[in-house]
Specification:
7 strands; GNAT_dom; Acyl_CoA_acyltransferase; UCP028520; 7-stranded mixed beta sheet; acyltransferase activity, transferring groups other than amino-acyl groups; Aminopeptidase; about 35% helix; alpha+beta
Length: about 200
């Protein structure tokens, strides 16, 4: 019954797409091209497995990313540096079983070494109380609301201070130790793999 969180694998994208588009009105639908764009550009794109099955995923971007989300733009206009959770999806049969908490613990562990704040939104038009309570229990607070252009969805814009960030920045600057649990941005890993000489 354990939950494992790891980087998404390319062959899993079809399953991730199906999971996203079965999530209901609390998550915007995706098409294969948009999901592929996430795979190619997202700094953080990880899945949760439970009992060997895909149980959820989370996609995130640093504030320097050229991300085209109107909610990301809302945060960018107001806050100089943050890590943005674009979406988290948990399979309906796995909700309430700790998958969402495992993904949030993992993304927070990643973000607190790199950003002073963690940002996300909750859609308010479709019974938002469970999602707001979930985020409130993680220490998020509302910093405003945004009506998303093009879709007309009203969102509660949430942020959480990363209390470890200042110490990490003052101690290590931009040179985090090479430790397995620290991880690297996905696009950096992909770039290194492309540069690796043939046969190594």
């Amino acid at each position: 019954m354990s939950i494992a969180v790891r980087d998404v694998r390319e062959h899993e994208l079809d399953s991730v797409l199906a999971l996203n588009n079965a999530a209901g009105p609390a998550i915007l639908p995706l098409d294969a091209a948009k999901l592929r764009h996430f795979y190619d550009t997202a700094e953080y794109f990880r899945v949760a497995e439970r009992d060997g099955n895909l149980a959820g995923f989370l996609v995130g971007f640093g504030s320097e990313a050229g991300h085209d989300s109107s909610n990301f733009a809302w945060f960018s206009e107001r806050f100089p540096q943050f890590f943005y959770i674009d979406r988290i999806v948990v399979a309906s049969r796995r909700r309430g079983g700790g998958v969402g908490r495992a993904l949030y613990a993992d993304v927070q562990s990643y973000a607190e070494l790199r950003s002073p704040q963690l940002a996300c939104e909750v859609f308010l038009d479709h019974g938002a109380d469970p999602a707001l309570l979930f985020h409130g229990s993680f220490g998020f607070r509302e910093v405003g609301q945004n009506v998303m252009a093009g879709v007309g969805v009203r969102a509660s814009m949430l942020m959480k201070d990363m209390c470890s960030y200042a110490w990490v920045r003052d101690t290590y600057g931009d040179r985090l130790p090479q430790l397995p649990w620290v991880g690297q941005a996905r696009h950096v890993v992909h770039a290194e793999q492309r540069q690796r000489p043939t046969g190594t």
